[in-house]
Specification:
Structural class: alpha+beta
Radius of gyration: 14 Å
Number of strands: 4
Distance between the termini: 22 Å
Bound molecules: zinc ion
Largest sheet: 4 strands, antiparallel
Shape: globular
Length: 101
């Protein structure tokens, strides 16, 4: 069984077969300035938080590490929004840290 941090490829494979070890959890919003968090879910495998989140809209796996911050999420949302609708979201996104434990 998988019980540690996965890389993207095995994670994608688990998603493809709807593996039951995968759990998605919403980020608790403590900062109303982080308007992009409601659009992602944290990825857990066997209750181990992974270095990835998944976009609720297009189900793309996006790298997220607390050490590197939310830049990847912002980048994804920018391209994700371009694909379909181009609504104006707030650009006042401040630095946001999650405490995973
Ligand atoms: Zn997306």
């Amino acid at each position: 069984m998988v019980s540690k941090l996965l890389t993207r490829t095995p994670l994608e494979q688990l998603f493809k077969k709807n593996d039951t070890s995968i759990a998605l959890k919403k980020v608790k919003q403590t900062d109303h300035g982080s308007s992009f968090w409601p659009r992602f879910s944290l990825v857990f495998v066997n209750d181990v938080g992974q270095n990835f989140v998944i976009c609720d809209k297009c189900r793309t796996i996006v790298t997220y590490k607390s050490s590197t911050g939310t830049g990847g999420l912002k980048k994804h949302l920018a391209s994700c929004d371009k694909i379909t609708l181009s609504n104006t979201t707030q650009s006042t996104i401040t630095t946001y840290y999650t405490t995973s434990k």
